[in-house]
Design a protein that fits this description.
heterodimer; A: about 110 residues; mainly beta; six-stranded mixed sheet; 12 strands; about 0% helix; B: about 120 residues; seven-stranded mixed sheet; four-stranded antiparallel sheet; globular
Chain lengths: ~110, ~120
């Protein structure tokens, strides 16, 4: 079956530090990959996505590249801010008729200190 | 800009009680989903619907029922609540389309925190 594995958290960084959150997946066919972010007390919202191998998704300074050879979609940001403190979820949507269903990783809590 | 609205936002139940969570979306989306979020386990799909009058089981459907009588509403019911159903429940919706044209973006509600004593 499909699965997503994220690096263990929580992650604590100082402002302006470099961020990497690892994500690897297992899926048949050609999935689409997503990063969602959940700010405190809110629902999840899409951060970025990539729909095919070697695509790079980017938004708000965050980037992730779809690496089929390593089945990975690691999230990076060059300089984090306090406002980036949130829970980050990696997710995949299987190819074919999936009815939009997403399979999520366990989430990584990020805390950024001033 | 209502988007996806869930009610209630908080609820405490005793074991064996029943309740219904309501999800409403105003984006005319065909697909709707109920997920539960538990620490260290991410989000797991309970049930989903691909259109009015249709429902299907997700990854963890036991102990839950759903109904989609109107396109904009998706109800999640617990007939006999158990402590294992203590969780945060999220409703989401997405636009339909052929696999190639579906952007895949899910729009989430703010969540409903349920505690079963």
């Amino acid at each position: 079956g499909n699965s997503v594995t994220q690096m263990e958290g929580p992650v604590t960084l100082s402002e302006e530090a470099f961020l990497t959150i690892n994500c690897t997946y297992t899926a048949t066919g050609y999935p689409s990959l997503f990063w969602y972010v959940q700010y405190p007390g809110e629902g999840l919202q899409l951060l970025l996505k990539a729909t095919k191998a070697d695509d790079k998704g980017s938004n708000k300074g965050f980037e992730a590249t779809y690496r089929k050879e390593t089945t990975s979609f690691h999230l990076e940001k060059g300089s984090v801010q306090v406002s980036d403190s949130a829970v980050y979820f990696c997710a995949l949507r299987a190819g074919g008729t999936s009815y939009g269903k997403l399979t999520f990783g366990q989430g990584t809590i990020l805390t950024v200190h001033p | 800009n209502a988007g996806v609205t869930q009610t209630p936002k908080f609820r405490v139940l005793k074991t064996g009680q029943s309740m219904t969570l309501l999800c409403a979306q105003d984006m005319n989306h065909e697909y709707m989903y109920w997920y539960r979020q538990d620490p260290g386990m991410g989000l797991r799909l309970i049930h989903y619907s691909v259109g009015e009058g249709t429902t299907a089981k997700g990854e963890v459907p036991d102990g839950y029922n759903v109904s989609r009588l109107k396109k904009q509403n998706f109800l999640l019911g617990l007939e006999s609540a158990a402590p294992s159903q203590t969780s945060v429940y999220f409703c989401a919706s997405s636009q339909t389309g052929l696999a190639g044209s579906n952007t895949g973006e899910l729009f989430f509600g703010e969540g409903s925190r349920l505690t079963v004593l």
